[in-house]
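Run log, item B.
One chain of 181 residues. Sequence copied directly from the ordering sheet:
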Amino acid sequence: MKHHILTTVLALCASPAFAQSATMEPVPPAASLTAHADFKDQAGAAVGSARLTQLPKGVLVELDLKGLSPGLHGFHIHQTGKCEGAAKFASAGGHFAGAGHDHGYQSAAGPHAGDLPNLIVPENGLLKLQVFTSGVSLSEGATSLFDTDGSALVIHAKADDYRSQPAGDSGDRIACAVVEK
């Protein structure tokens, strides 16, 4: 039995397919487009960060947040890459919408490309979470977060109801982060 196994292993090692793969250079993983964003509250205090990674069918957003009030918070991608706390982050503009779409997962004409699920912040105010969205891209094109005026990630004071126009009745913008390469 040992002789049979050894013969099989030697035969495999001598086969052309194995020999070819053993002499080929390793192929590095495909380069991924990435971006980052640093969240600030309206007073300018740091409240976390996000790492964005382009995947074949959309963007993975990895959040690491701290100091947020516990409970549900609306979370969206906004159309302008400006986060001016003194103006309550109105500088971030409206949602990254996409042509012909209304706000909300429960809207027949929705959702916006920048609509994301509510965040559920635990009592300690710390949240690490991954969210995937197929509505945006880090590469060039109509869904790129890097258009001429950039984009921002915004956290709201209340939960998004996923239907009210134009922003899900999610309340004040309490944290904002400009998406940067």
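Observations after the first pass:
- The helical segments are 2-14, 16-23.
- Confidence is low (pLDDT under 50) at residues 1-30.
Flagged for discussion on Thursday.
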